From TrEMBL:
Organism ancestry: Eukaryota, Viridiplantae, Streptophyta, Embryophyta, Tracheophyta
Name the record gives this protein: glutathione transferase
Domain GST N-terminal span(s) in chain numbering: 14-95
Catalytic reaction equation(s): RX + glutathione = an S-substituted glutathione + a halide anion + H(+)
GO MF, any single term: glutathione transferase activity
Taxonomic source organism: Sphenostylis stenocarpa
Length: 235
């Protein structure tokens, strides 16, 4: 964020502000959705150790103290999946969910599946030894299911990008970087050709490609993070 983070934000009618930290995949979800909907918003980026930003979080998300938080005319909405639902209901075009209630429910099922299984990917990043082997196996199982689900479609919902793509966007954003740091490649083209193509399609989408950090930036960030969790003599 430029300059000092202020604990008081100035709110005007019709204004959208997004509180975030770099490179939170949860925050990216909201950035991507707002870009897809072509909505103007102000991005307020902070750092967790900055006391002013902590004050902002205490004020706008006192329950979880996490980002993202979307401020609508100063009213805070927290939790990325809740914010995404708000965005979809408020600005239905272009749609991120199917119109048919049954298809919509199926899409939401997959969103909930992806959310639940994301912990395996976290374990893949933060464990070693037996736990790591287990996490790797779990990640492979989840990827297998996703590979089947996407089939020959361009995106998970079909020809157009949708909510599940956004929810899973963190795979396209950072999983390759995390694999490079961990030193084990799971999502390889030979085993998961369809997911591999999806990553390319997702990253090349006009609303997404301008809102992606570089491999280099992410690598430096995640390497430092992993070293803080796992000392290099055990990794
Ligand atoms: N379930 C939340 C997760 C958000 C989350 O974990 N955000 C992280 C940044 S990636 C955070 O704010 N962490 C702050 C902390 O744990 O102190 C969501 O979907 O929005």
């Amino acid at each position: 964020m430029e300059g000092n983070v202020v604990t008081e934000l100035d709110h005007r009618m019709g204004e959208l502000k997004l509180l975030g930290v770099w490179p939170s995949p949860y925050v990216y979800r909201i950035i991507w959705a707002l870009e897809l909907k072509d909505k103007k918003y102000e991005y307020v980026e902070g750092e967790f150790h900055n006391p002013d930003f902590t004050d902002l979080l205490l004020k706008y998300n006192p329950v979880y103290k996490k980002v993202p938080v979307l401020l609508v005319d100063g009213k805070p909405i927290a939790e990325s999946t809740v914010i995404l639902e708000y965005i979809e209901e408020t600005w239905p075009q272009p749609p991120l969910l199917p119109q048919d209630p049954c298809e919509k429910a199926v899409a939401r099922f997959w969103v909930s599946f992806a959310e639940e299984k994301s912990t395996s990917f976290m374990s893949f990043f933060v464990t070693v030894g037996e736990e790591f082997q287990k996490a790797t196996q779990e990640v492979r199982e989840v990827l297998k299911v996703l590979e089947e689900t996407i089939g020959d479609k361009k995106y998970f919902g079909g020809e157009e990008i949708g909510l599940l793509d956004i929810n899973l966007g963190w795979i396209a954003l950072s999983f390759g970087v995390i694999e490079d740091i961990v030193g084990v490649k799971v999502l390889v083209a030979d085993d998961f050709p369809r997911l591999f193509t999806w990553i390319q399609n997702f990253r090349e989408h006009p609303s997404i490609r301008t809102h992606l950090p570089s491999h280099h930036e992410l690598f430096a960030y995640y390497k430092k993070k992993r070293e803080a969790i796992i000392p290099s003599n055990t990794a």
